[in-house]
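Quick one:
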Amino acid sequence: MPRTKDALKADIQQRRPALIELRRYFHQHPELSFEERETAATIAARLRNTGLDVTENVGGYGVVGLLRGTKDGGSDRTLLVRADIDALPVTEANDVPYKSQKLGIMHACGHDGHTAIALTLAELLFAQRDHLRGNVKFAFQPAEERVGGAEPMIRDGVLQNPDVNAVIGLHLWSTLPVGTVGVQTGPIFASADEVKIRVRGRGGHGAMPHLNVDPILIAAQILAALQTLVSREISPLHAGVVTIGAIHGGTAGNIIADEVEMIGTIRAYDQADREHLHLRVREVAQSIASGMRGEARVEIGPGVRACDNDPAITDLIRRAADATVGASNVPRGDNRLPVSDDMALFLAAVPGSYFLVGAGNAERGITAPHHSARFDIDEDSLSIGVEVLARATLEYLK
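Output:
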C-alpha cells in the first residue's frame, strides 16, 4: 500500500539530518556555471549508489538519473524532476560552520539546497518504486545562473528515452517565510533579455557642440523614451520592465565623446509583450539617434522566456503543497516574481510547474536576498521541498 500522510512525513523526518548534511556539503564546495565537474561527479555517484540508471555529461556537466517504477498496471508516463547545481561568483560573508571553502564562489541562490532535495527525493522514491506506475527522471542541470544549461540538456535528449510527459521543480526563496509554498498558474518567473545599445556620434571640443554630434545627449533622450514603452505600450493588466543599468561614455568634461554604450534588461511575463518590447526598443533607439544625426546599434539577447506553468500540473503541485504545509500556508494570490530561470525551456517543451518554497526566517536573521554575500536558508525548507515533490510524484504516477 502507498504510504500514508503521516508515514511519508515520518520517512522524510528520518532523512532530515542526512538531507541537511548533504546541502551543507554542496554549500562548502560550490562550483561556477560550466565548471560543475566535482558537483556532477558527486551527484552521479550518489544516484548510482541509490540504484538509478545514470547518464553523465548531458549538455555539459548535466547528470540524469532514471528511476523506473515497478507498480503493476502498466504505464509509460515519465515525470522529470529538475534541479540546478551551479553557484555564483560571490565571496560569502556568513560566519557559519558550513561556509564556502572557495574564496569568491558561493551558493548564494539556493542551488545547493535544490540539489540536496532532488537527491533525497530520488532515494525516497526508489524505496517506494513499487508504488510508482511509470518513471521518474531526475535532471541535475548546470549553468542556470548563466542561462546556459537547460538548452544543451534538452538538445542532448534529456526529454527522450523515455519521453518525458511532465516536468516539475522548485526554487527555495528567502523572501518567503519558511513553512509557506508559493504556487502560481501561468507565468511565475519573467522572461529576461540583456540589451546593449551603442550610440555613435561625432566627438570634438565641448565648447563647440554645433560642430559635433553628442552621443551622451542622444543616449539621454533614448533612456527617457524607453521608459514610456511599458507605461504606454504594455497593457496595464500585464507587467514589464525596461531598465538601463549602465551607461559608459566620455573621458572628460570638455570633450564630446564619439560613442556611448547603454546596457540594460528587458523583462515580461507574456511572450507577445516580450517580442513587442524587443521590437520597440530597437525602433525607439534607432529613430531617436537618427533624428539627432547619430546612429544606434541595438543587440538583444540571448535571453530566456518566462517560466509558464501548466494549469493541470500546477493544480497537482497545489494539492501536494496543501497536504504538506496546510492550505493556509499556500497563498492563493499573485506569486509571480520578475526574476528569470531557464527552467522556462523545460516548461515550454512539456507541461509542467515550477514553484517556490519559503526559506526565510526573520527571527533567525535569515532575510538576505538571493545573490547576496549573506544569503542563507532556513534548512527546515529542505524537508518541505522533498515532501511537496514526493506527494506530487506519487500522485502523478499512482
